[in-house]
Amino acid sequence: MPIDLDEIERARAEADCLATEAEVDAALDRLAAAINGRLAGTNPIIYTVMNGGLVLAGRILPRLPFPLEVGYLHATRYGHALKGAVLDWRVRPTQDLRGRTVLVLDDILDEGHTLAAIVDYLKAEGAAAVLSAVLVHKAHDRKAYPGMRADFTGLEIADRFLFGCGMDYKGYWRNAPGIYAVKRL
């Protein structure tokens, strides 16, 4: 069934802006400062979770003024297991992780099942430390485990259907410069 672009455009036009581009930029500055403080001098590998983490990676990496390696991975979770869920790997990590510090970048921590499984996988592959950074922490109590948080978080946003800055609406609007919520019906 073809996408109705009028509906896609209407969703953006009617959406509530929850974080402006300026607020996102300020959050990225804070996020980068925290990452710099923790990872400078550790020779990290920074993995971007595709597709959502792409925009965050493009905006945060230039703010990290230390040597690092960059890679990407693409995984989806299937099944209903909570911790250590089996991942369907589209692209696996390619670098040797043994003894390395790894930072995983993603757009949002919603329930976190996939991120938790990715972190577990990277640890099992021998990484010395695995940290996570997300632009958005969605505020709710349905996390993969109680109290789950990324190591670095840009913004805490209400529990709504979000898009922009890497998050999508029906595959569109990852490129929106702020963070938007679909209009409540």
Q: Average pLDDT across residues?
A: 93
Q: What's the architecture, going by CATH? A: 3-Layer(aba) Sandwich
Number of helices: 4
**Number of separate structural domains:** 1
- Give me the CATH fold name: Rossmann fold
Tell me about this structure.
- The protein is an alpha/beta fold and 185 residues long.
- It is 26% helix and 29% strand.
- It has helices spanning 5-14, 21-39, 53-60, 113-124, and strands at 16-19, 45-49, 69-77, 87-91, 101-109, 129-138, 152-157, 162-163, 179-181.
- A six-stranded mixed β-sheet has the order 4-3-2-5-6-7. The chain has a three-stranded antiparallel β-sheet with strand order 1-9-8.
- The model is unreliable at 79-84 (pLDDT under 50).
Short summary:
By secondary structure, this protein is of the alpha/beta class. The protein has helices at 5-14, 21-39, 53-60, 113-124, and strands at 16-19, 45-49, 69-77, 87-91, 101-109, 129-138, 152-157, 162-163, 179-181.
Task: Give the helix/strand layout.
Layout lengths: L4 H10 L1 E4 L1 H19 L5 E5 L3 H8 L8 E9 L9 E5 L9 E9 L3 H12 L4 E10 L13 E6 L4 E2 L15 E3 L4
Parallel strand pairs: 2-3, 2-5, 5-6, 6-7
Antiparallel strand pairs: 1-9, 3-4, 8-9
List keywords for this structure.
single chain, alpha/beta, Rossmann fold, 6-stranded mixed sheet, 3-stranded antiparallel sheet, 26% helix, 29% strand, globular
